[in-house]
Amino acid sequence: MIKKRFFKTKNEVEVTFEWPLGSEETVSLAGDFNKWQAEPMKLNKRTKVFSYKTRLPKDDSFQFRYLINESEWENDPVADEYIRNEFGSDNSLLHTKEA
C-alpha cells in the first residue's frame, strides 16, 4: 500500500510505503529516489505492517521495488503503474502528481 500526503504550501509529497507482515523477516525499499540502495523498512508489531516514509518532489514519477528477506524482489500490488526494467521484469511506478 502507498499513502500520499500532498502539501498546499510545499513542492513535495509525503509518501508512506507499506508492506503487510507475512512470513517475511525483513523488508527493504529501493528505488531511483534513493539510488537503488535498499533501505530497511520498520516493522510496527501492533499493526503488523512494515513501513517507510519519505518526501518526494511533486509532479514526478519514481520507480521502486521491495526487497524481501534480502533476496527476493517484489512489486507493490497497488502501484500507480508498472514499467519494464533492464532485467526483463517490471518495476513499480509511483506518480506524485495530485489527481
UniProtKB/TrEMBL annotation:
Source organism, top-level taxon: Bacteria
InterPro entries, A to Z: AMPK1_CBM, Ig-like_fold, Ig_E-set
Domain AMP-activated protein kinase glycogen-binding per the UniProt entry, residue ranges: 13-97
Any Pfam family the entry gives: AMPK1_CBM
Protein name: 1,4-alpha-glucan branching protein
Organism: Vibrio albus
Taxon lineage: Bacteria, Pseudomonadati, Pseudomonadota, Gammaproteobacteria, Vibrionales
